[in-house]
Specification:
disordered N terminus; Aminopeptidase; 7-stranded mixed sheet; 36% strand; alpha+beta; disordered C terminus; globular; 162 residues
Length: 162
């Protein structure tokens, strides 16, 4: 749990519920760089994927979504509300997702990010993600390559034993 400054309440991270979807959509719609999805797509992710939210005093501060297929977790979206930026919330959400993936014996966590999004790339690298590839012109508006990252748990376990 993230401790805010003396005048704020702590940030709590929990699994999203269906009644969180309206707040998730509202937060996402105000984030220019986020992937924009429909209410139904978010409901499906809450039901079948992994959606974690960060909240403070009952207000949604941010969220992270992932799909799980055959032991691989793919981060689909990480969004922090503008008034909560630069407080470490995205890092806490990523850390919580990684911890959950480990607990559920995932083989890896994968994601792609705009090549120009250096802040996000530094954040993923801080959490031990490594570059594993590139998708040319993956993003359309504006056109840009995607950099592919992976955090492979098996490799980390072997490295720690050496």
């Amino acid at each position: 749990m993230h401790e805010g400054s003396a005048d704020t309440k702590p940030i709590a991270i929990r699994r999203a519920r269906l009644n969180d979807v309206p707040a998730i959509v509202a937060t996402e719609q105000n984030a220019e760089s986020a992937a924009h999805w429909t209410v139904e797509q978010y409901k499906n992710l809450v039901d079948r994927g992994v959606v974690l939210i960060a909240e403070q005093a009952g207000k949604l501060c941010g969220f992270i979504c992932a799909q799980v297929v055959a032991g691989e977790w793919e981060i689909e979206n990480v969004v922090v509300a503008s008034e909560f930026l630069r407080r470490g919330i995205a890092s806490e959400l990523i850390g919580a997702l990684i911890q959950r993936a480990r607990e559920e014996r995932a083989s890896s966590v994968l994601l792609e990010v705009r090549e120009s999004n250096l802040g996000a790339r530094r954040l993923y690298e801080k959490h031990a993600f490594g570059v594993v590839g590139r998708r040319r012109l993956y993003y359309k508006v504006p056109e840009e390559d995607a950099i592919l990252y992976a955090l492979r748990f098996g490799q980390l376990i072997r490295a720690e034993k050496c």
